[in-house]
Write a structure and sequence with these properties.
Shape: globular
CATH topology: Four Helix Bundle (Hemerythrin (Met), subunit A)
Number of helices: 7
Distance between the termini: 36 Å
Largest sheet: 2 strands, antiparallel
Number of strands: 2
Strand content: 5-15%
């Protein structure tokens, strides 16, 4: 199957393949790699317990690299398709699906890890499902369903939010959105920057997602067929 694909479609398939790898990496139970060290007092009582998990950091960095590579394939397949004028039915269907799988996986996993608030993930997943339906109605009426400005800005903010969220997980998974407001004294300079960037890009992703939803709805509302 792969031998018959053009390069953009191969990149799309690579992105789809990387999604379950990304999910598996972030789904590994902490109990598999956590190491607990207990300090005892003079009478044998436990005085402190420190959890050391260097493997978590390694897994986090691998997951981040997998996500970034997948995001890069999204940019590359679009550029190659436009430059070489390659348009296929497979690409039209699978490319947007691959994008939604990657973004949804990123936000769902970060929500499960306690980094991203659940309502943000819910908004993003809802928008993707609804807009997919709207674009289907538009395509049935031979309309241009290519991503507009709102969709591109939305994607940019989402990718940056997931990337910085993964960095936050690597640095300190206990600190979520806007933690820099109350926990800044406990953060390193790099950790503070990461949390600020993550918080702002998450806020930007929510705003851009809602904007994109409204934009697509206004664009395709007249194409919604409720009779057939």
């Amino acid at each position: 199957m792969f031998s018959k694909m053009n390069l953009p479609n191969k990149l799309t398939m690579l992105r789809i393949i990387l999604v379950p790898i990304f999910i598996i990496l972030l789904s590994i139970p902490a109990s598999w790699y956590e190491k607990t060290e207990t300090t005892t007092g003079m009478y044998g009582q436990a005085t402190s317990t420190v959890t050391v998990s260097p493997v978590k950091t390694v897994i986090g960095w691998i997951a981040l690299v997998v996500f970034v590579v997948a995001a890069i394939t999204d940019t590359l397949d679009g550029r190659i398709s436009r430059k070489q004028g390659i348009v296929t039915k497979f690409g039209k269907i699978m490319d947007p699906l691959a994008d939604k799988l990657l973004v949804s996986a990123g936000f769902i996993m970060l929500t499960g890890l306690g980094i991203v608030p659940a309502f943000i993930t819910a908004i993003i997943v809802f928008r993707d499902f609804f807009v997919t339906a709207l674009r289907t109605f538009g395509a049935d009426n031979a309309k241009d369903v290519a991503a507009g400005l709102s969709g591109k800005i939305k994607t940019l903010f989402q990718m940056l939010a997931i990337t910085s969220g993964l960095l936050q997980y690597i640095i300190d998974a206990k600190l979520g959105m806007f933690a820099f407001i109350t926990e800044s004294t406990m953060m390193s300079t790099f950790g503070l920057i990461v949390n600020v960037v993550m918080s702002l890009t998450l806020a930007g992703a929510v705003i851009a997602t809602i904007w994109s939803f409204v934009d697509y709805f206004l664009r395709f509302k007249n194409d919604i067929d409720v009779e057939n």
